[in-house]
Amino acid sequence: MLRKLFTAALVLAAVGIAAFWALTRPQGLSRVQQASLVEGDAAAGETIFWAGGCGSCHADKGAKGDDKKRLGGGHRLDTPAGIFVTPNISPDPVTGIGNWSLEAFANAMWNGVSPRGSHYYPAFPYASYARMSGGDVSNLFAFLRTLEPVMRENEPHELALPFKLRRGIGLWKRLFLDPAPVKTGLQGEGDIERGRYLAEGPGHCGECHTPRTLFGFGGMDEGHWLGGGPAPEGDGKIPNITSGEGGIGGWSAAEIASYLETGFTPDFDSVGGAMVSVQDNMTHLSKEDRAAIAAYLKAVPAVDIIR
Fold it and tell me: Can you tell me whether residue 82 is helix, strand or coil?
């Protein structure tokens, strides 16, 4: 009897391990994703570079202007899960992504999978980049290939168990990786659709301005979309950028667009903290794109700040 129970337990364990392994398998590009890739336009890709804030994480800390195009990585992001170190995404063929194909780049952006077939941690905001079009992923890749190669070896993340076990990220993706738009049917003035695409996709505004589920380690809590929450790094709060309590409901769309361009609030306070780099990125977008983001923020349903 004991032998039968032991055998049954082994069988169940084997089945469980096999199921876990299957469910967490890193995914390659789908046929639809593959078909959407095109020959990239580097000039159009520069817009996506600035909208996506690539230099804010992958260039030297505090870099401005063209220095943000030196993408050697090395930022240390101190989070509750441990320290993530941003990688070199310059076109250096040895330490960067100079030898990557467009398909490998797209699989990283959309599916969070490395060229070696392992999961990337969602500290890399592919849950937002998954909403990008094939054209813009192709354009961004074309632009990155025009930048100066930076020779800098990547450093490992400093994570404790269970976070250092990447395979489990496959379950996280099954729960939270969804390329569908977050907010649909929004009403208001201006180019809300363009603003939604920029804010929910390459701009990944929700990654910081939306609280997380599962004790801060899950996906974005879409019921409190852009309502603010705990800072991803260290102490403090990320502000509510909806028109709810504690938000920016008193700002007009023109004032939001002006803030993105100049860094000054309607009452002449100035941008601070991590938003300094983000606002600097926004100055490189067109007036029309900043206005579209502002239109989207005015249309997003109000969320009262989480205390």
Answer: strand
Q: Could you tell me if 88 and 150 are in contact, meaning their C-beta atoms sit under 8 angstroms apart?
A: yes
Q: CB under 8 Å to 302, separation ≥6 — which residues?
A: 242, 243, 244, 245, 247, 249
Q: Measured between alpha carbons, how far is residue 183 from residues 106, 199, 224 in Å?
A: 24, 11, 11
Q: How far apart are CA 272 and CA 173, in angstroms?
A: 32
Q: What is the pTM of this model?
A: 0.92
| Structural contact between residues 71 and 89, judged by C-beta atoms closer than 8 angstroms | yes
Token couple for 2: 């004991």
Tokens of 62: 């505090």
Q: What is the pLDDT of residue 136?
A: 98
Nearest to 141 by CA among 283, 38, 284, 281: 38
- The residues that bridge with 78 in the sheet, in sequence order, are 83
What is the rounded distance in angstroms from the CA atom of residue 102 to the CA atom of residue 107? 9
What integer pLDDT is reported at residue 15 of this predicted model? 60
Pick from 91, 103, 113: nearest CA to 40: 103
Alpha helices (runs of H) in 75-212, residue ranges in sequence order: 102-111, 126-129, 134-144, 169-176, 192-200, 206-209
Q: Report d(CA 16, CA 33) in Å as an integer.
A: 31
**Using an 8 Å Cβ cutoff, are 263 and 270 in contact?**
yes
b/e map of 144-180 (b: 16 or more CB within 10 Å)?
Answer: bbebebbebeeeebebeeebeebeebbebbeeebeee
